[in-house]
Amino acid sequence: MSHLLEVEDLEVKFALRGGDLTAINGASFTLDPGEKMGIVGESGAGKSVTGFAIINLISKPGFISGGRILFNGEEISSFSDEKMRKIRGNRISMIFQDPMMTLNPVFTIGTQMVETLKAHRNISRHDAEKIVLEKLKKVYIPSPEKRLSQYPHEFSGGMRQRIIIAMSLLTDPALIIADEPTTALDVTIQAEIMDLLQELCDTDEMGLILITHDLGVVSQVTEKMAVMYAGKIIEAGATDQVVTNPAHPYTKGLIKSLPGMIKPGEDLYQIPGMMPNLTDIPPGCAFNPRCPVKEPVCLEKEPKLLSTKQGIMAACHMVGQ
């Protein structure tokens, strides 16, 4: 079976006055139909830029400066805007963290969904409305017929996010990229939205890339994951393996800082220090200023992503030491 998505040595730069800034440095991964993958890391790690690069939506001064992105075997990173529009929002959909940024406050939900569908398909309004209702039912919106004439502000945050998911499903995409889709929602609604995305992947063979800083969500939803730090993938593998047997000190720190990992009354663990600024990445391993196990080699030589005994890929000089 061929891969649904292949990202090979992806490099994204931002052209600034002082020279080009590398935001993504050689990221590679694959995704199969129906597979669920998590991309994890702190703010500024490059997770969202990776998602935007896949659908070629990086705004200037950013640009894809190297690597290849293959979708269903076709290299889409070099597609023209016009050609890309046939894929973006059609074969690949993206869900953003704030539904109010995606929904237009002055149009009803029905109008927005019908127009979205008509932008990608040559169908009548009547047929479009039928598909819209079917998708709203699919995401468990109660009495969807009534909802079509309502405006975004008449819905709760969780309902709005479901409507965004219904919108992203209108064209039966092969891949959904969800960028922090539950950040603005409370915990019970978060769980509902994640269950819904999982169900859609299982029933429709839809691929999912879940971009998040929340390792807890990734461990419940995805089959494989990649951990990003300062624009690089520093650990990757099957989710259960990475969560139970992390190889990289950064991943270990992320797992240790999960609330469920501490005894009642203990302080929550925090990785010391901050992610480096992209203009000021330290030599050697970018994580070295914050690393509890660093050695002299870590300050000089950049570690390569290599396979560990557990079959996880990790970029750390100390793995296996």
From TrEMBL:
PROSITE patterns: ABC_TRANSPORTER_1 (PS00211), ABC_TRANSPORTER_2 (PS50893)
GO cellular component: plasma membrane
Pfam families: ABC_tran, oligo_HPY
Membrane topology: Peripheral membrane protein
Location of the protein in the cell: Cell inner membrane
GO function term, MF aspect, one: ATP binding
Claim: Cell membrane is one of the keywords in the record: yes
Gene3D superfamilies referenced in this protein's UniProt entry, alphabetically: P-loop containing nucleotide triphosphate hydrolases (3.40.50.300)
Positions of the ABC transporter domain: 5-255
Primary location class: membrane
Record family assignment: Belongs to the ABC transporter superfamily.
PANTHER family: DIPEPTIDE TRANSPORT ATP-BINDING PROTEIN DPPD (PTHR43297:SF2), OLIGOPEPTIDE TRANSPORT ATP-BINDING PROTEIN APPD (PTHR43297)
Protein name: Peptide/nickel transport system ATP-binding protein
Taxonomic source organism: Desulfocicer vacuolatum DSM 3385
